[in-house]
Design a protein that fits this description.
DNA-binding; Arc Repressor Mutant, subunit A; homodimer; mainly alpha
Amino acid sequence: MAYRMNDSEVEQCDFIHVHEDIVNQVQSVMPDEDQLLDLAEFFRVFGDSTRIKILYVLSQAEMCVCDIATLLQMGQSAISHQLRVLKQMRLVTYRRDGKTVFYSLADGHIQTILAQGMEHIEE
Amino acid sequence: MAYRMNDSEVEQCDFIHVHEDIVNQVQSVMPDEDQLLDLAEFFRVFGDSTRIKILYVLSQAEMCVCDIATLLQMGQSAISHQLRVLKQMRLVTYRRDGKTVFYSLADGHIQTILAQGMEHIEE
DNA sequence: AAAACATATGAACAACTATTCATATGTTTA
DNA sequence: TAAACATATGAATAGTTGTTCATATGTTTT
């Protein structure tokens, strides 16, 4: 998200009392800006209830668009739009069989992340 | 997000050709609606680049608000607002030491999830 | 007690997102 | 090849979100 600063300078904190040693040390191990943006974009996909539900049902079985729509009690179009997002971010894959398209989870990380999330909220 | 349906019925798919066996089987193991909403809400927190950066720097060291603002080259207020979100969702904790407040990651799941995400995007 | 410092918070706004509706594309069947 | 089926997609829009600005709260120092 791009928000404008009304000045070319960023304001941060008006002092020189930062903990310099820590800041410098962490500064040196920071990943690329791009990598962190990708990471946020990746997690953003998990951050919507419709998409989480889709991921969950696909973690149980391969499924077509209308199966998912039925399970989630939502319209076919809404599901299809979200599947596109999931596809683009490589969280799901699909195979075509005649008229119907079967979706499934892309790889093991997705399952692991879902499971870790579940554990966290159940605490 | 709540969007209105112009009818009381949900439209799903206009047919009876769903794969009933799969749908019924998955239906029976679906977690509560609430649990899936919580899960999405939890992941939503990871889905913003500012928050991901905060989580990343905190994975390296305990830090005060201004350290973070300096590292991320952002305003104090923006960081503070995001820390509140992270606090509310129990992704970070804090301790006060005089005027300054030191933040750190709440538990191990956060590290694991970050690491899994990194692995995924590096593929 | 006043000034300075560190952080938190409310309001406002621009940017973004998820759904719906209508329709297009692709596949099979009659 | 026309009709029916399954999925995909574009436009529109209501709801949501992240940042800024101004200011409040809490702590220390003088």
